[in-house]
Amino acid sequence: MRAILKRWADSDLAWSWRNTPVAWLSTALFVLLLIGAFGAQWVAPHNPFDLTTVELLDALLPPVWMEGGQWTFLLGTDSQGRDLYSALLYGTRVSLLIGLASVVLALIAGICLGLLAGYVGGRVDAFIMRVADVQLSFPAILIALLIDGVARAAMPRELHDILAFPVLVGAIALAGWPQYARTVRGLAMVEKSREYVQAARVIGVAPLIIMFRHVLPNVMGPVLVLATVHLATAIITEATLSFLGVGVPPTSPSLGTLIRIGNDFLFSGEWWITIFPGMMLVLLVLSVNLLGDWLRDALNPKLN
Hints:
CATH topology: MetI-like fold
Main location: membrane
Helix content: 55-70%
Protein name: ABC transporter permease
Family: Belongs to the binding-protein-dependent transport system permease family.
Largest sheet: none
Number of domains: 1
Number of strands: 0
Number of helices: 13
Organism: Pollutimonas subterranea
Subcellular location: Cell membrane
Distance between the termini: 28 Å
Strand content: under 5%
Radius of gyration: 23 Å
Shape: globular
CATH class: Mainly Alpha
């Protein structure tokens, strides 16, 4: 383990990270949000979704620095008396889980299909790429809405809230796999003509082993950059779907759900119910995008 850490510390990527203020600042912000989200049960002062601790008399309290605010609720409360600061931490966890799960699923599907198309070629390549082209002609949010609507129509109503999370993850992943497939396909077409792949073919190595053991490690750089950027896109897509009312259920709201709930009170003076979830979403997406931009520049040999 110590040797691995030392190798990382001496790598060009670590040097670039240490000498790029934007990189370590965005990393610090993202790690802070991760700690707050996945440690919400220890960090948050309240459990906003435990009905036994929610008091309706505390509804619509302003932030602590405004008149009528209380130190018990630093960022105020919503219309049901839930602590907004605690709700933000729990909502960020839901948004991150959906974003990460959908990116991993899209990454796996895109890599497998891209390797198959780029290495095999021919009709297999033409079929996979035409499917990807057709899907890319539609906005990702429209595809996610379509899949979510079809799934809700096919499922019994009592299962909507239970299966909302996997349906949302599948919808976002299905809308994002073509980007990975096209990237991996182009890189695999270049790698398959190199000497090490030709040598592996000559000695009789199976095509699947060549694709995943030899070709895949050499195409992962751009894919990781794309995954970082896609994580921010997936979080925004989930927030949009939840804002439209077709995302996660209100019993386990994400940042998009909190923004939608607060939007009903925005013009009545309770601005904090929607502004703070919106700010949290901006900080989360901004930190991921800045990390993706740094990683793209650090892995680009033409910029080094």
